[in-house]
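Supplementary material to the annual report.
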Amino acid sequence: MGTTAADRLTPDTGLTPDTRVFLDHAATTPIRPAVLELVIDTMRLGGNASSLHAAGRAARRIVEQSREQLAAALRANPSEVVFTASGTEANNLALKGLFWAARDADPRRRVILTSGVEHHAVLDPVRWLAAHEGCEVVYLAVDREGRVDPAQVREILLDRADEVALVSVMWANNEVGTLNDVKDLAHTCAQFGVLFHTDAVQAVGSVPVAVDEVRPDALTLSGHKLGGPIGVGALLLRRDLRPVALLHGGGQERSVRSGTLDAPHIAGLALAVELAVAEQPAYASRVGQLRDLLITGVQQVVPDAVLNGAPGSGRLPGNAHLTFPGCEGDALLMLLDAAGIMCATGSACQAGVPEPSHVLLAMGRDERSARGSLRFSLGRSSQERDVDALIDALPGVVARARRAGQR
Amino acid sequence: MSSERRRIVAALSGGVDSAVAAARLVDAGHEVTGVHLALARDTASDAPGSAPGARPSRGCCTAQDARDAARIADVLGIAFYVWDVSEAFEREVIADFLTEYARGRTPHPCARCNERIKFATVLNRAIALGFDALATGHYARIEPADPATGRGPTLHRGADPGKDQSYVLAMLTADQLATVVLPLGDAHKDEVRREAARRGLTVAAKPDSHDICFIPQGSTRAWLAARLPARPGRIVDGATGRILGEVADLTGLTVGQRRGVGLPTISSDQQRRYVTAIDVATATVTVGALTDSEVTLIVGGGAQWCGPAPGVGWRGRVQVRAHGETTPAVLTDVGAGRTVLTCELPVRGIAPGQLAVLYEGTRVVGSFTMDRSAPGVAPAAVAADVVRGVSG
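Predicted assembly:
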């Protein structure tokens, strides 16, 4: 054909990138230029990190330096880093791999505790284990803001600690942005000798993540949420844990995750994590102020808009999640999209069919408000004019969506 | 199509017709947004349904159609969304489909969907959201309103006689037609397929859909049997009144049907036997020769006129099935909730629940749902009490 995918890229709004307002950083935030350069340079270098010759050594050096760089940024041990191809893969490895290993060691251990507000990359593996592998899932309740109470975990563990294979609770919610007290959760589990995994995909780079302080047994992170490339993630996994592998093959990554090491993406991930963690305090302060400006501004022009999730420092600095009574979220999204403003209704949906957010339902909201919500997520490149553009467009968009009504 | 730039929702089914329809609007310079309608969903997921975040999974064909529709929008470079109208579809189309069959009638779900979903729920939503019009890939033509004469927009047969779909759009009012765009009205199917291939649309060779979209395997009786209680009945010879046999479940039978009744399809005197009537109240299926189902008098519910309502004595042609011949007919009574039509030649196999569509030349005059029909009654002899008394 002679054309590449990039040649065929055509803007579908007729707007230039400068006039578009991107408020969906929680889906994918743009790659950092320095990271992009590093990925390209490393890709040019080539080499298989498992080879014994000079080219292999060069690639291996990049992978191992990246491992150290990533571990240092998160105050973990390099030997704890397992590189994966995505956050989803890291979650699957933690949940399935650790469940199988725990059950194999002790057949009574077949319970997983998790919350109803987890990302589908946690909920769906757990549901699959329940349907096919005899796992019993205990869903932890969340409060109105979407938070798990560690006391609830303690109570269940007092009763059934020796039946529990794993506890998995997210660090920060991807939809409503609420932060969990993962330190308390991890310590509670540790007291009972129960494994604790946390999906920290939204947290790393946005809030302080110090593995040596929180001490989770497994922690998931992903490249494209923090300025790294798409297609790479990592599981920080306690050195002595031996999850059953999902991918068998060449024995890379402690034989836990076989597959030729993707040195270019691994290098990009490590640099992105290092930069994001270094900039985190300044980022949280600047973007947190923008977020508050956005929330206040929205509620000024749409007074009945309701903020979901925890207020202030209890939520991700870049997350503003609001319900617009009387509107369909997907109608709002479409109208904003047509005005050049990109946001999200929640987590991604199946074949484009919008579902009421399982997160809001678990938080006790009814289906109507769960359908009429939007997530605005800010990032490194966000500016006050992005917020201004949203506030300008919103009254007309909400009025129109209200006329179209709710199902 | 006017030359001004309009904001148009193009309904994309994932098939070739709606794809080419949308493409033509893009070429004409309109601001086109692709919308795929999620009509039915299968809530029986393989995962335990009570778990938080359990997603209702849709039938595989539907999901494939949604992907095809999204891909079409990508190729055309237009925005694309899925609108979930499954609740309205369940309420307005599927529930009606079940009720009608339970009454021994034969509903027309595609026409019902056009009337209640596509050109009602979806069109209204599009207009409320600030769009100017809704476009579909139907093969029918809309003549725009003529401000000079004050005539509103009119609906006409599509140019391709093999594909004409004016029958299933006949219930559209002039108001609706003013905000509907049918870019394939002048097109022929083979030309549309060639155009799709030329445009690089991967659905160019996708087969036409003929079945009812919410009945996956195409077996309406099996689908109904899973949802409605079985209605055992007797089979009666319409000519002699003799009981010919039993039928385990008369639900889903249709007037004009020959196979699947549970009788030899040919009677002892070598005549082919057809269902000529279904009476749920007495659990009776009447069968007879094809000529036994010939009628000239058709009685139905209130008509939906596409333009000014014609009066008694109107003369034109009637079409009683989606792909059928037309017959000359005279409107012999018209009133609130009732329409009576007298055909000048006998028509066969009228199934209560189906649409009668009235035409003047290529123009759709109106339509009504047929309730009853009766053999030859001369137009002059039709009195209201006769009409009320017709059976079958």
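Confidence is low (pLDDT under 50) at residues 6-16 of chain A.
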